[in-house]
Ferredoxin
Amino acid sequence: MPHTIVTDVCEGVADCVDACPVACIHEGPGKNVKGTDWYWIDFSTCIDCGICLQVCPVEKAIIPEERPDLQKTP
């Protein structure tokens, strides 16, 4: 099951982008409710490796389940 970036928790650090082995993490348009850049995971490409979860310094910004209700997808 793919992981989810919680849009309103993400702070746009983007460590996950470089760490992702399948390039399934993309920058979202505009800012989130915190006023920061944010990223989203393409569920159809994610291989559920968990590397993004390991490298993200923002607590609870990435969760190990597919939750489209918590992640904006452009």
Observations:
- Helices lie at 15-19, 51-55.
- The first strand starts at residue 4 and ends at 5.
- The first helix runs from residue 15 to 19.
